[in-house]
Amino acid sequence: IEHFETAAYRLLSNLSTRPKVFDPPPAYTLIIRTEIDPAMASEYERYLAKVKSVQDPASNSPTAIRRVSVRGVAATYVTAQFFNKNAELDSWPALNDLLTKAYGEAEARSILEASLRCIRKRDGFTLMYRPDLSQPTAGSASK
């Protein structure tokens, strides 16, 4: 083993978009892991607040659960979004379009550029829900 990392994340409910529990669980979870410059944490959270402010009123924006690291690599943010079919991803509104509608073209560009100045590294991956490998909940055992 060349590298081993342990992390723990705190829920940012005030920066999450329509957080909810899915029953049954969605087929897929899209995870976006973003490492930012620790000195830019406040600016990045202002960006996330603006993202939430434009996603919440958009009925076709997906649920986005956001968390920040409390153990492991400092200033790491994780966003989880959920879907059942890949076609759903195409139905989600583009963030640039939502920001432009709410703030105008120049301000939207400024918001996006400010977020890019904060980011050191960003990874994305998709997890597939496997009920055969998951422990059933008490509610699902009685069904």
Tag the structure with descriptive keywords.
143 residues; 5-stranded antiparallel sheet; 27% strand; globular
Overview of the structural elements:
The protein is an alpha+beta fold. The chain is built from five helices and five strands, in the order E-E-H-E-E-H-H-H-E-H. Strands 1-3-4-2-5 form a five-stranded antiparallel beta sheet. A hairpin with a 4-residue loop joins strand 3 and strand 4. Helix 1 crosses helix 3. The radius of gyration is 17 Å and the shape is globular.
Please state the average pLDDT score: 92
Multimer state: single chain
Largest sheet: 5 strands, antiparallel
First CA to last CA: what distance? 43 Å
- Tell me the number of helical segments per DSSP (H or I, 4 or more residues long): 5
How much helical structure, as a percent, in the residues? 25-40%
Low-confidence stretches: none
Strand order of the largest sheet: 1-3-4-2-5
Shape: globular
Q: What is the number of E strands?
A: 5
Order of helices and strands: EEHEEHHHEH
What gyration radius follows from the Cα positions, in whole Å? 17 Å
The helix-and-strand class reads: alpha+beta
Strand content: 25-35%
